[in-house]
Amino acid sequence: MALFKTYQKLLKNHFMVVQAVQTGLLMGTGDFIAQTVIEGKKIKNYQLKRTVKFTLLGTCFVGPTLSLWYRLLARTFGTEISTSTTLKKVACDQLIFAPSFLALFVTNLNLLNGRNFEDIKKDLNTNYVDLLIANWKLWPAVQLVNFYVVPLNYQVLLVQGVAVVWNTYLSWKTHL
């Protein structure tokens, strides 16, 4: 219980930093799981640099972007818990944010991996539609719960908790 109170205090006083760090750690966890469980790599073949890049992307891009996005949704549609508000947030999230965010995510990951724009374009042509369809299989249901039940300060945490599975998939899919 003391740990949760400390977390709440940190979240209140350093919202963006906490969101960024927790997202980075959970994305790194997803990459670790992708490498060791999904890809079956032994520790001697484990690519720490890959996990560091995924963690960095989560800390510097994903966490801050999600935090700002959820605040924008709250300002735009309010924080009222209603079916109408929730459906508007989910529709915006999945029809506007998710498609553009996934493209930016794949682009940023490729840039971190030193790829040029021609290779990034090929990667997007190869993987983007699969990623977007997979996104739409998971995230609308999660976001319905998130926007209907979870207070704004904890929405990124819930999403990133579920996203350990999503990040595992993303890491595996973007490192084939």
TrEMBL record:
InterPro entries: Mpv17_PMP22. Keywords: Membrane, Transmembrane, Transmembrane helix. It comes from Hypothenemus hampei (Coffee berry borer). Its main location: membrane. Belongs to the peroxisomal membrane protein PXMP2/4 family. Pfam families: Mpv17_PMP22. It is found in: Membrane. This is Mitochondrial inner membrane protein Mpv17. It is a multi-pass membrane protein. One of its GO terms (cellular component) is membrane. The chain crosses the membrane at residues 15-34, 54-74, 94-112.
